[in-house]
């Protein structure tokens, strides 16, 4: 399979009070053409920052990529100038943001916002562009698409807004769609529609998708492979079947355990104790160790290396040191 | 049987929306005849499609907006037409958790002041006492003391929602209107929060109006569920009954859309055909008939009345149900 | 260069004389108020009117009265009858003939309408107007009035046709016999007149004159420099040096009839003691006043009237003498000086002058508080007091100007016992029965020598009594491009353009 | 509660440090380099305002008719004015009046205007209409008429100048704040505060006011300059200080006639006003940045 | 929307009625006696009384008001006490020049102000920002007469490009509008900067960038419009003030505008002219502010006005 995106040892740093805070600690993963990758992890683990890093959308913040490579179609995005990135954004890599309320310009009509990338990247003119926009809106399940074009974001419900965002992202047939929690704000029926739509688009147009979500149901439904992020590091990567069947990392196990399942008569859900550590104050060793039920003494001393297993699986955990894992250096 | 904390009857809300720059106004019936009740200490969940009026119902009950019609009884008091000045006591009893965690937090206030605000409004605790309570409650929702001194934009989405929950919990209110409180949370925290909400409920005898579109979450937390479609509740009942024996075609469709966290169980979804009709021009007859897979002729003409759906507490508005 | 208005007008008819096609711009400092000559109180309106309108009498360059539309005139001995022989062959701009009838309608208008300014100033004294023949007319007064001749200068004769058209038209669109006729008046911007080719007077003059109100001193100077204006009046004294060095510009200094003074309320303590008032006069250095406040222009005021005024007699000036001033104060019982207040309007010149007085009086221990007031408020404060006891006025920094020929107006409103505010401008509340008698007397005679005599006494008496701090007489400044000819600035600030021409 | 115990222990170590808003502010303020220096300059101005007359090299009131309108020299570093008074000394002595009048009047105008604007924008309806139409009328009234009325009622004096200039400012501030209020009241966090039962006062001052601060600060710092000039124009109506008082604005305006011939008479007070306004603007920008949580740490 | 506008316009009637009373009382109650001012310093009491009677000022004030209103309803603004000309005549020649000058000043001030403000915000704390700041502070802290006279010195006296004053032809508007607009430009620049800085942090700006839009599109199209509310407020106010004319600029450039007329009339207590002008300005401000309010809801569609 052909690789579309290869992220190597990505490190992203924010500056606060003149103090550098590393958010991503060397993230590695790749996306093949036409593949749907799920990026999961707890809130604050760095999922959104990973996606912003790929797009290099740090203007106006203190964030910057300090090391690592982002190979997209065999070109390193990390070294691209702002001008070059601009040609890629929206056209080759599109993004759906997590915050549907604030990510749309409140004073521009939906239509105007939607037409922007269409005109820019597809070069369509007035009427054609409009038709295209309306068809995309219909595709993402917006009722009264024509009318909505001339409405303002605040007139729409949260779900509708997110659908607008999705429409905007897929309007230029990107090669890679980064979807940061695209369906979180949607109800199940629309979620089903959207997921279905994303699947179709992905299959028809050989679009790759980086799906950031914490809804493991969505992951199971959609993804081919899953990357689990914890405190700015990939702790596990596996085929979706393997992951749900036999999660390796204790964190992954915890995540899968906390999902409420339909028909499950439990008074209390399982949950991972504690929460994601503060990135400005990370301790040595495995970042998950303080919350890990299986923590060993080595875990708080030394960071576990990435261990590779068969079937493209990898996991960073000392539990598997003795197993068949080959330590990649 | 415990007493009823919240009772809503015949709630209606229409917005007038301008039609273009110079056109006449149009009426948008966001909530159209909603009735339900929640016994004290129980959880009632509203589920339904985006734009069907869930949040509006929540905003009506918390009296952020005034209903066009209907009654709202909270803790034995009717508040639907009260003036703002007469609502303060009610506001102490009722707290909200908002759908959009970021926008509902004042970007210029530190988290500790955001969370302490209800205390500042309703109590005369000293600043130190308030901050102490804040530290406690932050830990309860899974944040730490060191977060208190920051601004909301420095948090990730999930952390922000926890701030919102902490703010709602700090007053130990009687009724919490939770508008999609966990949809922005990742599963582990979602589980924590759901557990927490349940714990708090049993500890303080809290009552929840829980708004969500995540049926698995809803199933976990609720006692009763109301399924909303285009401003009305089309089916409501105890969760066991609703999940095991859904009567309304819309409920059925909803249930079939839930993604199941097991890749082996991928299935063909029943994806509803057609768009959600506009609440400005709702369909005649049964509001669902335009998308209903089993619609009959009568559905287009007559609005179905609410009928008992077999068991007690189970109500359905569908012509198919006898 | 845009905005330079001295362009050739090519379409106008040629009479072989190149200069006559030139146009002239005159920039003055204030807006014109009205074009109704019978109801005008401001200098600038007067100046503009004088280009278009003429009275029976006129002023020469020194301000002396000469016949104008009258060929000659006589005044009866009892100063009650005025007889005018009118000029023949004069036409109004609208083609109507000028004659005794026209004069009569004009005078009757003023006599009858008591809202007109000139009415209360002499014309309401008229009892009879007799047309002796087409070109001779006799005016009879009820009682003698020494200022009457000056009024005949002011009472410009308008076309009877215009008078018939009503007040509003008169105020906007004057028609007279002058060397220029009215073209247009754009409110606030400019007023244009055009040469009247049927003018009775001889001489060459420019084709057109545009008057522009340009209140900002610096801008007026700039206009003169750029040639946008050929004449500016007044020229700010600060710029005199700079402009004198400019070859294209000549600066003209004209002695004026503007007296600057501080009136002292002689009825209020401590000013009821003449020694105190004299002390104040001795305390002020008039030469320094002229150099600091007036940029070195003008003369000390060495009588109660300026030297250009008829009947002026120089008095022994109060030269600055601090010792003497202190001595006088001591005699009056104010060894340690006193506190008092000076009022003035809010013009920057007034404020400057008041500060100067403040600085000067400090030397003799008088602590002067400056209270500058907006004109309307000030006027209320001064004229609001119905009786002398009511007034809060102590000192007032002000100036006074009258026509050189009108000594009555230069004295009576200021020193006559019946002219206390609100009945006049005697803000010194000066009352001297002898002076009052003289003033009544001088008004009743038409004999210049007798007038001279009485005014000599009046001047010396009042000057000694020192109801004012006598400061200075202004010298007024005008600027002209060197190619300008025949524009005369009169001592009262009028601009005579009868012979206006450009080389 | 069980959950609370599960929190990381290692995180609590750093949080021992006491939180003090003032210290926090100071820390951030020092980081705003230009604004920091500008605030020192304002401090200097304030010191001059207090001790100015005592450190002046010459008597600011003493005329010297032999040295009229002299340009800057060793003895008179800013030259002399039309009475031969030392301009530099007058500037030092005038700082007090110019600064206090402008600062006081802008502050008072800002406070009253802000409250009116908040009330107007927040409550809307007839109250809004009343306040706004009242301010429309206020706008239409020229300053000079108000000044005449104030002199008539209260008499001349510096206090009344402050009152007058404050009144001029009120409607502008009210309009400005109302504009931002209309926007801020639509935010979700305002709705959230409402749902908590926050009083109107609390919502207005705690939630909406901070949203308007950005423009408010800019306007205040801009108006400092206008107020200095406005105060002087009032002395031309007899409302202000008497003309001999060394007030920067009055010095500037009275020097008008000398602009062409002895420009230093106007340039010197002009520079003083310019630097003051510049300092206030720089400080304003810094303040804006420090008060905005998103930028304060940059 | 139309309804809203209509309502606001109808609302003007009672407001103007109240305003007329206010203006009338205000002008008549401030100290200063027009009869005296018309008559002159040397006038006797009798003369003043005659004039007072003639001006109708000896009547009870409410009667004067009724007469005034009666005239007003017949479209008669009265006759100037000072010039005896109809007020409409005096306005006639001044009104349009005032409007043109206002527009000219506003247009350049808006454009340059927005430009400087935007550049300052985009290049925050760079030299562009500092230059913008110094320009803006100069514009606001230097009095109009100074700027005006300097412009005259340079462009009229030295270069001879523009006339020193008047209101004939577009050239005579250049210098006055530059002078008049300077302060506004400064205000607008500062407000634009401050407001834009806030907007640039918003999420939707990131969305715009993620679409691949250029900064030159993101800033003006997405950021600027979201920042305009305070800018529009200030611009509107200034526009209103400009319509009222500027005494300083009209004086320096001997411009026939409404401002100096008002000041002259006030000095003379020329009641009919003052009243007419104030009434006119009130209408102007109300209309301008109505437009601002409409602009608000255009700039931020969330702002809707209850009808
Ligand atoms: N602009 C910023 N400045 C400083 N720190 C930031 C900034 N944005 C994010 N962070 C920090 O980076 C970490 C990762 O944030 P990120 O938004 O990537 O989380 P996430 O995995 O997307 O979480 P969620 O599921 O809640 O969206 C968090 O600890 C957050 O506090
Ligand atoms: N203030 C308002 N003015 C006009 N229409 C409104 C307003 N608030 C909500 N609506 C409309 O009312 C309907 C119901 O909106 P509501 O926000 O209650 O939906 P919801 O069920 O909460 O949807 P979601 O799950 O997307 O949040 C929508 O069509 C919405 O556009
Ligand atoms: Mg995220
Ligand atoms: Mg909702």
From TrEMBL, chain A:
<dbReference type="InterPro" id="IPR050388">
    <property type="entry name" value="ABC_Ni/Peptide_Import"/>
</dbReference>
<protein>
    <submittedName>
        <fullName>Peptide/nickel transport system ATP-binding protein</fullName>
    </submittedName>
</protein>
<keyword id="KW-0547">Nucleotide-binding</keyword>
<dbReference type="InterPro" id="IPR003439">
    <property type="entry name" value="ABC_transporter-like_ATP-bd"/>
</dbReference>
<dbReference type="Pfam" id="PF08352">
    <property type="entry name" value="oligo_HPY"/>
</dbReference>
<dbReference type="InterPro" id="IPR017871">
    <property type="entry name" value="ABC_transporter-like_CS"/>
</dbReference>
<keyword id="KW-0472">Membrane</keyword>
<keyword id="KW-0067">ATP-binding</keyword>
<comment type="similarity">
    <text>Belongs to the ABC transporter superfamily.</text>
</comment>
<feature type="domain" description="ABC transporter">
    <location>
        <begin position="5"/>
        <end position="256"/>
    </location>
</feature>
<dbReference type="GO" id="GO:0005524">
    <property type="term" value="F:ATP binding"/>
</dbReference>
<dbReference type="InterPro" id="IPR027417">
    <property type="entry name" value="P-loop_NTPase"/>
</dbReference>
TrEMBL record, chain B:
<feature type="domain" description="ABC transporter">
    <location>
        <begin position="6"/>
        <end position="255"/>
    </location>
</feature>
<dbReference type="InterPro" id="IPR003593">
    <property type="entry name" value="AAA+_ATPase"/>
</dbReference>
<protein>
    <submittedName>
        <fullName>Peptide/nickel transport system ATP-binding protein/oligopeptide transport system ATP-binding protein</fullName>
    </submittedName>
</protein>
<comment type="similarity">
    <text>Belongs to the ABC transporter superfamily.</text>
</comment>
<dbReference type="InterPro" id="IPR003439">
    <property type="entry name" value="ABC_transporter-like_ATP-bd"/>
</dbReference>
<dbReference type="GO" id="GO:0005524">
    <property type="term" value="F:ATP binding"/>
</dbReference>
<dbReference type="InterPro" id="IPR013563">
    <property type="entry name" value="Oligopep_ABC_C"/>
</dbReference>
<keyword id="KW-0067">ATP-binding</keyword>
<dbReference type="InterPro" id="IPR017871">
    <property type="entry name" value="ABC_transporter-like_CS"/>
</dbReference>
<dbReference type="Pfam" id="PF00005">
    <property type="entry name" value="ABC_tran"/>
</dbReference>
<dbReference type="InterPro" id="IPR027417">
    <property type="entry name" value="P-loop_NTPase"/>
</dbReference>
<keyword id="KW-0813">Transport</keyword>
UniProtKB/TrEMBL annotation, chain D:
<protein>
    <recommendedName>
        <fullName>Glutathione transport system permease protein GsiD</fullName>
    </recommendedName>
</protein>
<dbReference type="InterPro" id="IPR050366">
    <property type="entry name" value="BP-dependent_transpt_permease"/>
</dbReference>
<feature type="transmembrane region" description="Helical">
    <location>
        <begin position="101"/>
        <end position="125"/>
    </location>
</feature>
<keyword id="KW-1133">Transmembrane helix</keyword>
<keyword id="KW-0813">Transport</keyword>
<comment type="similarity">
    <text>Belongs to the binding-protein-dependent transport system permease family.</text>
</comment>
<feature type="transmembrane region" description="Helical">
    <location>
        <begin position="137"/>
        <end position="155"/>
    </location>
</feature>
<comment type="function">
    <text>Part of the ABC transporter complex GsiABCD involved in glutathione import. Probably responsible for the translocation of the substrate across the membrane.</text>
</comment>
<keyword id="KW-0812">Transmembrane</keyword>
<feature type="domain" description="ABC transmembrane type-1">
    <location>
        <begin position="95"/>
        <end position="284"/>
    </location>
</feature>
<dbReference type="Pfam" id="PF12911">
    <property type="entry name" value="OppC_N"/>
</dbReference>
<feature type="transmembrane region" description="Helical">
    <location>
        <begin position="213"/>
        <end position="241"/>
    </location>
</feature>
UniProtKB/TrEMBL annotation, chain E:
<keyword id="KW-0406">Ion transport</keyword>
<protein>
    <recommendedName>
        <fullName>Glutathione transport system permease protein GsiC</fullName>
    </recommendedName>
</protein>
<feature type="transmembrane region" description="Helical">
    <location>
        <begin position="130"/>
        <end position="152"/>
    </location>
</feature>
<dbReference type="InterPro" id="IPR035906">
    <property type="entry name" value="MetI-like_sf"/>
</dbReference>
<keyword id="KW-1133">Transmembrane helix</keyword>
<dbReference type="InterPro" id="IPR050045">
    <property type="entry name" value="Opp2B"/>
</dbReference>
<feature type="transmembrane region" description="Helical">
    <location>
        <begin position="99"/>
        <end position="123"/>
    </location>
</feature>
<dbReference type="InterPro" id="IPR045621">
    <property type="entry name" value="BPD_transp_1_N"/>
</dbReference>
<feature type="transmembrane region" description="Helical">
    <location>
        <begin position="12"/>
        <end position="30"/>
    </location>
</feature>
<comment type="subunit">
    <text>The complex is composed of two ATP-binding proteins (NikD and NikE), two transmembrane proteins (NikB and NikC) and a solute-binding protein (NikA).</text>
</comment>
<keyword id="KW-1003">Cell membrane</keyword>
<keyword id="KW-0813">Transport</keyword>
